[in-house]
Write a structure and sequence with these properties.
Chain lengths: ~500, ~130
């Protein structure tokens, strides 16, 4: 049995690694002999089989092929209808995890408990959906860990570095930046920041538009008119992107059955211009991470590149210019997240993590000095607090004879309530006939498993309520539903 | 210096719809302690202070806002002020891009593009 297993459930590629007896992590290939499995699922129309991986990506009907489902893990309305059944992103992810589990366990033995990586800014629902996917695939989630944290653990392990490290993880669908401090065998995360919809697939789409534009100029027709043609063209654009990381210029011949062929010429300079907006966003995330950790670029000892899109020369140049030092590659940039997750499974006690989000409540804040008052998101646990942690804030009631104290639980660091998510509410009954202004203590605690608890104490009466804070909105499956779908999935043929 | 008064969403909404405060607030049976999903915070609708005398002419379509207008950048702002403003907005909208609310996510994407445009215009391209 493999005791310490890590899974990188990526937007475009997924991988599983385990910790060998010598303490080094190793990627476990799938049954197709590949070290990484494309995160693609194909629903065959002739046989009752779900294909996962390269076969699904390359061979199938695009209308029956699901790509990049990770992008929708927090979207309860994203339902995939296939052969009369509704599939959630979590179930599609479960198929990918099932393939990894079934294939890899033939090599390393039974796999029961795993660490799964998630983008640093995955919200509550996306994290829950990931755990649900694992459970449906028959895997118990030991921990979820942020992708850049896992990559940093692997980098620190393989390179033996010390000091402050900034990990820049530009994957297929997201960008994550983590700053951490390595002292001896111990790792302390200082901050993790993430940006969604900023990854390699965004660059592919931009390049696809350039392909289409050149094609239209030459043949006066659209490059693609259906999903199959679009997918084929997107694949070509992705290949061109990869080539432009090595060459200054690429030429490609592309076309479709109805309008014929056209020659596409692209230079690295053009590509860099096209993705400039995205690269600037990436730099702003790096600046945000430095701000959050109260550090300057010169305080960073090592800049580490992770994720396939970190191979783009412009990305390296941008970081080199900002930090005044050349960024280093994390070995194989596609595999280090899974490798780090396997290490994390063993070493988690030596890794000091931080709270991924701020948690607070809504309050009318009176500033006695200025006389200003406004409703704000009042933060109780600030983002990047070392975990486990517990924090208390004192508030007062707003009305006379208030019988029920309501405490909304917010997630997000913005002062403006419009820009935070309200993920729950605690209600506490208090005695009647009291004036407004009674003191209420609100305590939030956050444990190493990223579970949040909230305690509300009415100081005058001593009454209190404590609850586990858990997002239970749309998209979260009940235990019964999870069990039902798990047993359905286990009977399925997945290749 | 700061006094923090608990302010739940339901109370905020109650105030918006019923401006006159009841003398004796209704006493509701207290529900058992629970954590349940709550509605997204909504902004209070702006109150109309002018009475309509005649039907106003059909409003002209609003011109599209420039990136500077979207970001609240004013001509008198110096570079440091613009930098600070963009940082605040980037943090806000980058986070909003992962919101549980679809509308907020769409607004965030539009704002992130505007933020980059203002940055490039002010500080040059990277």
């Amino acid at each position: 049995m493999a005791e310490f297993v890590g899974i990188d459930l990526g937007t475009t590629l997924s991988g599983l690694a385990y910790l060998k007896a010598d303490g080094n992590p190793e990627i476990v290939p799938n049954a197709d002999g590949e070290r990484l499995t494309p995160s693609v699922v194909y629903f065959d129309s002739h046989e009752d089989v779900k294909l996962v991986g390269t076969a699904a990506r390359d061979g199938g009907d695009p209308d029956r092929t699901i790509f990049q489902v990770k992008r929708y893990m927090d979207d309860p309305e994203h339902i995939i209808k296939m052969d009369g059944k509704d599939w959630t992103p979590s179930e599609i992810s479960a198929l990918i995890l099932s393939k990894l589990k079934r294939d890899c366990s033939k090599i390393v033995g039974d796999i029961n408990e795993v660490v799964i990586t998630v983008p640093a800014n995955f919200n509550e629902l996306a994290r829950k959906s990931t755990i649900a996917a694992a459970e449906m695939a028959g895997l118990k989630v030991r921990r979820l860990v942020n992708e850049p944290t896992a990559a940093a653990v692997y980098y620190a392990h393989s390179q033996g570095v010390q000091g402050r490290v900034l990990v820049f993880d530009l994957g297929g669908g997201t960008l994550d930046t983590t700053i951490l401090e390595v002292v001896g065998d111990n790792i302390r995360i200082l901050t993790s920041e993430g940006a969604r919809h900023l990854g390699g697939s965004n660059f592919d789409e931009i390049l696809l538009e350039a392909y289409d534009e050149q094609y239209r100029k030459q043949v006066s027709a659209a490059l693609f008119n259906d999903e199959r043609q679009r997918r084929r063209s997107l694949h070509a654009a992705e290949d061109a992107k990869k080539m432009l990381s090595k060459l200054q210029r690429v030429s490609d011949t592309i076309g479709n059955d109805t309008s014929g062929l056209a020659r596409i010429d692209l230079t690295r300079e053009t590509f860099e211009k096209l993705i400039r907006n995205m690269i600037t966003r990436a730099l702003m995330l790096v600046e945000q991470a430095l701000d959050s950790a109260k550090l300057k670029p010169s305080d960073i000892d090592h800049v580490v590149l992770v994720g396939g899109s970190s191979r783009i020369p412009k990305v390296k140049q941008m970081l080199e210019k900002h930090f005044g030092k050349s960024p280093k590659s994390c070995g194989n940039v596609d595999e280090c997240v899974a490798l780090g997750a396997a290490l994390f499974a063993k070493k988690s006690a030596r890794i000091q993590e931080v709270c991924n989000q701020s948690y607070g409540t809504l309050a009318m804040i009176y500033n006695a000095a200025t006389g200003e008052e406004k409703v704000q998101n009042s933060i109780v646990i600030p983002k990047n607090s070392s975990i486990p942690c517990s924090r208390t804030q004192m508030y007062v009631t707003s009305e006379d004879n208030e019988r029920v104290i309501e405490v909304d639980i917010t997630q997000g660091e913005d002062e403006d309530p419009k820009y935070v998510d309200v993920i729950g509410r605690i209600t506490l009954e208090v005695p009647p006939n009291r004036p407004k202004g009674c003191e209420v203590a609100v305590t939030f605690s956050y444990d190493e498993n990223q579970r949040v608890r909230a305690l509300v104490v009415d100081k005058q009466s001593g009454r209190s309520r404590e609850v586990a804070v858990s997002y239970k909105g749309a998209g979260v499956l009940s235990d019964e539903e999870l069990k039902r779908r798990s047993s359905f999935l286990r009977q399925m043929r997945i290749e | 210096m700061f006094k923090k008064v608990l302010q739940s969403i339901s109370k905020s909404l109650q105030r918006q719809t019923a401006p006159a405060k009841p003398v004796a607030p209704e006493v509701k049976p207290a529900p058992a302690a629970e954590v349940k999903p709550a509605a997204k915070a909504e902004k209070a609708p702006a109150e109309s202070t002018l009475k309509k005398i005649a039907a106003p002419p059909a409003p002209a379509p609003e011109p599209e806002k420039t990136p500077e207008q979207l970001c609240g950048i004013e001509p008198k702002m110096n570079k440091d002020q613009i930098r600070d403003r963009l940082k605040l907005l980037y943090r806000r909208y980058n986070r909003a891009a992962s919101s549980l609310d679809g509308k907020t996510r769409a607004e965030a994407d539009k704002m992130l593009t505007a933020i980059v445009k203002v940055r490039e215009k002010t500080f040059g391209e990277i």
